[in-house]
Amino acid sequence: MSIKELRIPKRFFSIVMALACISLIHIARFYIRPGEQSSLDPKGGIRSIGSLSAPVKIIEFSDFQCPACREGSFVLKRYLKRHPGQIYLEQRYFPVGAIHRHAYRSAYFAECAAQQGVFWEFYELLFKRQSEWDELSGEDADEMFLQMAFSLKLDVDRLQVCVDSSKTHSVILEDKVNGEKFGAKATPTYFINGSMVVGTDSLERMLAKVLGERRY
Amino acid sequence: MKKAYFLTALRFLIGALFVWTGFQKLMSHYENFLYVVQSYEIFGKNSREFLYIAAFDESLGETLEVMVAWTLPWIEFVAGMFLAMGLWIRPAASVLGVLTFIFAAATGQALLRGLPIDQCGCFGEGLTLPLRVTFLIDIGLLALIVILWKFSRMSDLLSFDRYFVKK
User: Fold this and answer.
1) What is the nearest CA distance from B164 to chain A, expressed in angstroms?
2) B126: Cβ contacts below 8 Å, ≥ 6 apart
3) How far is residue B4 CA from its own chain's centroid?
């Protein structure tokens, strides 16, 4: 039996098809976005600031070569200063190698700095001097990262071994896979008390909201 | 008859393209597409300078950004489906034509303003293209949609519209 024989009005049929399209998306979402069923929990550790019992918990997925992440790091610093004890911040790596050629190398160096106990200093330095290494060749960028490590009095020999270690690479990859699992696609992505926000505009809006600040 | 085959194939292709782009965006978290919308700086905090509307309210701009990020992928997906299925071919082509015109205008203004946009966001996470390439694709796509719209009656092979023709 054809649709013609059924004598279904076109408008009614169109509404049914539109609803079928919407249902299709919801069904596909259920199977394609499994991350929604679980929550992203803070882990603590060297790449975190503040107390795990702070009312505002932020998990940041960032790429050190991304200009918006740099801007985001300044926003976070400002809020941390303005609201001491109110914010817990944890950084996770999310290098976007397709558009940022030093994304992975900078993350390796940051992870190795973390292993020597100076993650946040290195994090700040990488973002502060981003425009200086952004356009450099791979070798020159590495040289600059080593200079930064030297300026922070890190054990450079240990750092170099660490940067090339597969264990370091797997830490970065694990963070990235974890971020993707929870829906991160671009940088910077933040999870503020479990809610996902992408970009610095949304970060500022959300922080102002959860910390009860008025924005100007 | 050859023209009808060509136009029907074109209808399927354009419909499938929008189904795919809409699907990509809908499968991703809406916050990701909101970020793409924000990066074009049309409604947000930097838009006033561009639009020269002194009275433009920032919170209204934020609301508009959220609305666009929520609704646009659904419109793309459903209109693309309708076009591919051949249901309301002309109206579906009109909707997709308007959307493509908006995409071209948004990309064009971003190019003119030299906005630092890494990815256009037009194809969701499926494909990343430079802004100039995206702009050219939008213009080409708009031309194809206009052709399809003009000769929509000839593109109804394997379509639902055929079944609903009043006699």
Assistant:
1) 6
2) B20, B21, B24
3) 25
